[in-house]
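Figure 2 data, in text form.
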Amino acid sequence: MKPTLLVLAAGMGSRFGGLKQLEGLGPNGETIMDYSVYDAVRAGFGKIVFVIRHSFEQDFRDIVLKKYENAVPVEVVFQELDSVPAGYTYNKERVKPWGTNHAILMGKDAVKEVFAVINADDFYGKESFQILHDYLQTLADKQNEYCMVGYRVGNTLSESGAVSRGVCTHDENRLLTSIVERTQIEEIGGTVQYKDESGVAHELAEDTPVSMNMWGFTPDYFDYTEDSFKAFLQAKGQELKSEYYIPTVVNDLISTGTATVKVLDTPSKWFGVTYAEDRSQVVLKLNELINKGVYPKKLF
């Protein structure tokens, strides 16, 4: 059975108001997400499941899904603030959604095979989808064995300012041992550096793997996610802004020895619109890839 791609797109409405970040960046109005779907289909993924909000469902179907209908089977599932297990409560003044791992949980009924997870608005690159697809194929009959695409930090920087990244460490078998969020990462004087909580700068090797939220899981991950979300709600459900993130659950599973996560290396360069000034650079990079023949001028 072919792997499924789960695309986290529920943040679209809340972050940008409507679907503004679906503005075209490619030559025929293609969005970053269009390139991800194109890459996933040619890598061999069999289905795309989008996690969205009810508030922009019709726009999403009309603007986005219509493009893909002849290319790959698609499905939508919904992430809402009130998507919590029966019997669990939360602060009714809260407006912020529950975060990336809650978004994954919304796919539980739609995804029964090995699956990948990506953000809707990040460009991951052709090679990364192929590497992830091929590794997921080896996990088809397994449990508790996951993977993530580890980007070389030097391939994820913005020319417009400092960024935050989940810096990964792994053992000699490239099994993930921890993810630590580092802020203020940028290239200064030819070296990549981050600043710690005290503002002290530390150097990072350019090939240090970082997480850009490109994961591979077997379906048992949904069960761990559900149990963990219940514990999260009990501990933090009354808070207004606490979020339930993927690395939190992954770190728990690897620290208890419940699961392993293989860190897959990729030569791909990640890019996205972290700053408004990044937009022109993204357009330029996409045009370069088209000129090199990596993508056709019109994707769908």
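Caption note: The chain has one domain: 4-153+211-291.
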